[in-house]
Amino acid sequence: MKYLIKLYVTGETPRSQRAIQNLKRICEEELKSEYELVVIDVLARPQLAEDEKILATPTVVKELPLPIRRIIGDLTDSERVLLGLDLREFQNG
Questions:
Q1: Helix, strand or coil, per DSSP, at residue 49
Q2: N or C: which end of the chain has fewer CB within 10 A?
Q3: Mean pLDDT for the chain?
């Protein structure tokens, strides 16, 4: 099963970089190579953020598999991210 995960950030700020690093680490640990991570800078692509109704950054959207899940923050709490994005089941499946 392949996961599609999008991370919306605002520019190359320390907060954005931390979110990217945290999410990559979590995905590698939990999903191994079974994911595609797309990082979207809302400053460079504001229309995408508007279309997805992104109100704050960093925001992670797990699009596949359904259901869609979202979580906001710098993603330092791995457990919260796993539960919020419904990624825990992968490990047990």
A1: helix
A2: C
A3: 90
Find the domain containing 59 and state its range.
3-92
Burial class (CB in 10 A: 0-12, 13-18, 19+), 32: exposed
The mean pLDDT of 51-80, rounded to a whole number, is 92
Give yes or no for a contact between 87 and 33, defined as CB atoms under 8 angstroms apart.
no
Do the Cβ atoms of 42 and 9 come closer than 8 Å? yes
- Domain total of the chain: 1
CATH number at 38 reads: 3.40.30.10
pTM of the model: 0.89
Give 82's contacts (C-beta < 8 A, 6+ positions apart): 26, 30, 88
- Across the beta sheet with 59-64, the strand order is 35-41, 3-9, 59-64, 69-72
* Residue tagged 């997805």 (tokens): 52
